[in-house]
Amino acid sequence: MCDLQPVETDRLLMRQWQQSDLLPFAELNADPVVMEYFPGTLTANDSDALAQKIQTFLVEHGWGLWALEEKRSHRFMGFVGLSIPSVNLPFSPCVEVGWRLAQDFWGNGYATEAALASLHKAFEQLQLDEVVSFTSEINQRSRAVMERIDMIDTQQNFEHPSVAPNNPLREHVLYKLTRERWSRRNEAGRV
């Protein structure tokens, strides 16, 4: 078991989950706009189970998908962080950087800010060689975040095994960032 330390940025606190996060997390997961590029929305029970799984991973590893809180308002925003996908993917094993924010927080650069803090943790503290991110090929919002954090589209699209065949969300893009590219980004002063 690891000692979980919160991660802070100028505007955000990435922390362990709290009981008070469950209701806004369930609302976020039930929002069809937020979940547009997932196979479906989540019930409150499914959302709570996901939060529990995320919390357990955080405690066991000392890193993971942190609950994201806006410092100014102390509002729960969603999650951002690192994870190990539970489904076997063509590029497994891997560590993924990912995010899911409530609509109220879109368009302010929060996902980018927190994803960069997650990548700092991945490369500077965990000493990972590579981090991936993936999403449905048609999810332009998440792809834009991936590009803003300097990830590269590998052009190695794949069919996500958890998405039904013939579903337009099945084709996924794979983005990667290496520690070498991250270091060059730091040296150029872009972090």
Task: Quickly describe the structure.
By secondary structure, this protein is of the alpha+beta class. The chain has helices spanning 22-30, 44-61, 110-125, 140-148, 179-187; strands at 7-8, 12-15, 65-70, 76-83, 96-101, 130-136, 152-153, 158-159, 171-178.
- Average of per-residue pLDDT values: 94
Largest beta sheet: what is the strand line-up? 1-2-3-4-5
Structural class: alpha+beta
Helicity, in percent? 25-40%
Indicate the radius of gyration in whole angstroms: 16 Å
- Give the N-to-C terminal Cα separation: 30 Å
**What is the number of helical segments per DSSP (H or I, 4+ residues)?**
5
Structural account:
The chain is an alpha+beta fold and 191 residues long. It has a single domain (7-187), classed as Gcn5-related N-acetyltransferase (GNAT) (Aminopeptidase), CATH 3.40.630.30. The chain is 32% helix and 24% strand. It has five helices and nine strands. It has helices at residues 22-30, 44-61, 110-125, 140-148, 179-187, and strands at residues 7-8, 12-15, 65-70, 76-83, 96-101, 130-136, 152-153, 158-159, 171-178. The strands form two sheets. It has a five-stranded antiparallel sheet with strand order 1-2-3-4-5, sandwiched between helices. β3 and β4 (76-83) form a beta hairpin. α1 (22-30) crosses α2 (44-61). The chain starts with 6 loop residues before the first strand and ends with a helix. The mean pLDDT is 94.
Throw out a few tags for this protein.
four-stranded antiparallel β-sheet; globular; 191 residues; Aminopeptidase; five-stranded antiparallel β-sheet
Helices and strands in order, then pairings?
Layout: E1 7-8, E2 12-15, H1 22-30, H2 44-61, E3 65-70, E4 76-83, E5 96-101, H3 110-125, E6 130-136, H4 140-148, E7 152-153, E8 158-159, E9 171-178, H5 179-187
Antiparallel strand pairs: 1-2, 2-3, 3-4, 4-5, 6-9, 7-9, 8-9
